[in-house]
Design the sequence.
């Protein structure tokens, strides 16, 4: 039985390392082929775009810490919207838990799935195709969240292991909420359905990161674990 | 290891390095001022300009260490609220994100954007257990000039509403537009610290010329001197000497007749502002100088802001002036350095005849020396003792020295050079 770690890309033959066994999709780092893990085999299902250069300090393999759990970055989706773009890094915990690390404007937002909010009237309104205006408030997890922005996003590309195939015709509506104490709530709706995520804003140091990406001309920060 | 990205300005052809690739959305070309959209791989011109390249106090690309982190200046906004204008520099480090460094009237502030927003009403807000009260009515603030790269869509002429709130020795700035509200925590930074970090001229006022420029200017002056008839030289020197004597007599006559007062004030470091009526002085001549000297107890990496008001007892009209006592010590690649002193002299020129109260508002601040973050720089209990001596009258020797240098400096240099030929 072949171990997943030495499976080869069905398109170019490069090795496709396994970062998260739970993720059904991976992007070949060499030819950007989107690969589905079909049982013990790999199946080519399309191509994704080469991600444009950015100065993100995060890379596949970077680890961060939250709630006493160590998480490792397994994949990334890059989203573009009318006024810029941002990264969503998929992180998997030592306990098997999956979270998303959003990265925009040098700030980070680590969130976990929070389906309860989809049961609220505002959650149902959004899931049914409605929108929420900036300033709208929603009470969740004992805190009051306010809509900060609403973005119509399109997938620019992806890398690593992911729970879905990153196709460039993939679009979604994303609403970011903030609470006064730095809490983050996010609702995302695409053709497949609506999901809700809750967490907190943080700077990079607050995530106790390790294995950060080296960026030419810049020293590694002292806070790296 | 990854390299940087650069784009070519479609308007002027200049090459612009994008320092925060992936975050930056707009770039205002440093060569022609055109605003470009760099959110997508195909660079688009949003607004084309053909402006002259701008000279900034801190040029784009300059790096400096503040609070233990190396920052690169990647953007500049020249802003105004109609009454006042100031500079804002956008700082970036890929591992630490963005900060702001602003400079108005020679005073520098370091700003950190907040993800936990203050709560309250228009008059006062609470943030991290501290109450802040509004400083002035919100005013429209325009970004008149933009250069460099930004993480939002920017254009010259963008207007936001802005105000500040103060409390506990800290300032919160808020700006809002139809789309969004941004809060920033500001801490004062001594000019000497910004100067040490970014190599900018301290207090923002003076321009630093290179040695080559200074030598070229001197050579021009000497050329003009050579053209002069030699016999004029002695006569001019005599007129100048007579002027100096006359000036000295005038200054002594007008400077005589002094009244003085002394007082002492304890100012808590990073505590609230302290207020003191230093005492009364009388100006006996129609117009006279008032000199206030402040000497402080010994300290390191502290600065004391002194705001003086000279309040006329009859009319209650006030004349204001300010001073700073600052002393810093540190270590960099050139070795140990110190900057500043423990005393400062502030002069009020041309104070009209009358009796005055001298009122002092003083606040003391600590500078962390780059070893810790601004939020934990506050320390408790420490005080700085300030001794204040004020006197009316006296001679403004600095003016006299300026007169001597002005009259004799260049001719003296010329005479010396001729004597060597």
Sequence:
């Amino acid at each position: 039985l072949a171990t997943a770690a030495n499976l080869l890309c069905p398109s170019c033959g490069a090795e496709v390392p396994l970062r998260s066994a739970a993720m059904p999709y991976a992007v070949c780092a060499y030819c950007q082929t989107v690969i589905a893990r079909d049982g013990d085999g790999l199946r080519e299902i399309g191509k994704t775009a080469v991600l444009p250069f950015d100065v993100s300090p995060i890379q596949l393999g970077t680890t961060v810490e939250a709630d006493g759990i160590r998480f490792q970055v397994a994949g990334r989706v890059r989203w573009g919207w009318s006024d810029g773009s941002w990264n969503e890094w998929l992180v998997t915990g030592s306990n098997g838990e999956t979270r998303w690390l959003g990265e925009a404007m040098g700030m980070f937002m680590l969130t976990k799935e929070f389906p309860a909010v989809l049961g609220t009237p505002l959650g149902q309104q959004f899931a049914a195709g409605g929108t929420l205006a900036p300033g709208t408030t929603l009470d969740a997890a004992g805190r009051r969240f306010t809509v900060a922005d609403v973005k119509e996003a399109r997938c620019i590309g992806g890398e690593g292991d992911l729970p879905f195939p990153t196709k460039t015709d993939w679009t979604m509506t994303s609403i970011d909420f903030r609470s006064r104490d730095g809490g983050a709530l996010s609702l995302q709706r695409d053709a497949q359905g609506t999901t809700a995520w809750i967490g907190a804003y943080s700077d990079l140091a607050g995530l106790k990161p390790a294995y950060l990406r080296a960026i030419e001309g810049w020293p590694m920060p002292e806070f790296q674990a | 290891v990854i390299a940087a990205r650069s784009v070519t300005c479609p308007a002027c052809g200049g090459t612009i390095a994008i320092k925060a690739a992936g975050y930056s959305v707009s770039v205002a070309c440093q060569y022609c001022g055109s605003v470009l959209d760099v959110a997508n791989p195909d660079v688009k011109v949003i607004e084309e300009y053909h402006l002259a390249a701008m000279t900034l106090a801190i040029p784009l690309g300059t790096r400096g260490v503040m609070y233990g982190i190396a920052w690169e200046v990647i953007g500049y906004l020249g802003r105004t609220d109609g009454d006042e204008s100031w500079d804002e520099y956008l700082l970036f480090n890929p591992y630490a994100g963005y900060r702001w460094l602003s400079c108005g009237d020679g005073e520098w502030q370091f700003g950190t954007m907040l993800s936990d927003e203050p709560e309250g009403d228009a008059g006062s807000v609470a943030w991290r257990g501290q109450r802040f009260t509004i400083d002035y009515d919100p005013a429209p603030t325009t970004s008149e000039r933009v250069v460099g790269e930004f993480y939002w869509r920017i254009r010259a002429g963008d207007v936001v509403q802005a105000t500040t709130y103060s409390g506990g020795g800290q300032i919160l700035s808020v700006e809002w537009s139809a789309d969004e509200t941004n809060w920033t925590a500001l801490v004062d930074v001594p000019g000497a610290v910004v100067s040490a970090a970014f190599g900018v001229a301290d207090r923002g006022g003076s321009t630093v010329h290179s040695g080559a420029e200074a030598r070229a200017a001197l050579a021009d002056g000497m050329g003009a001197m050579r053209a002069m008839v030699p016999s004029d030289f002695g006569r001019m020197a005599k007129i100048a000497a007579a002027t100096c004597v006359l000036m000295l007599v005038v200054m002594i006559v007008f400077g005589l007749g002094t009244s003085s007062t002394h007082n002492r004030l304890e100012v808590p470091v990073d505590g609230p502002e302290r207020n003191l009526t230093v005492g009364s002085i009388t100006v006996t001549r129609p117009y006279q100088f008032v000199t206030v000297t402040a000497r402080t107890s010994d300290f390191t990496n502290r600065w004391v802001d002194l705001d003086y008001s000279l309040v006329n007892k009859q009319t209650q009209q006030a004349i204001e002036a300010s001073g700073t006592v600052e002393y810093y010590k540190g270590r960099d690649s050139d070795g140990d350095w110190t900057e500043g002193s423990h005393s400062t002299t502030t002069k009020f020129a041309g104070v009209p005849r009358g009796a005055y109260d001298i009122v002092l508002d003083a606040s003391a601040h600590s500078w962390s020396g780059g070893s810790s973050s601004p939020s934990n720089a506050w320390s408790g209990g420490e005080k700085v003792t300030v001794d204040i001596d004020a006197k009316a009258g006296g001679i403004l020797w600095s003016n006299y020295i300026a007169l001597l240098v002005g009259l004799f400096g260049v001719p003296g240099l010329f005479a010396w050079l001729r004597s060597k030929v």
The two ends of chain B are 61 Å apart (CA to CA).
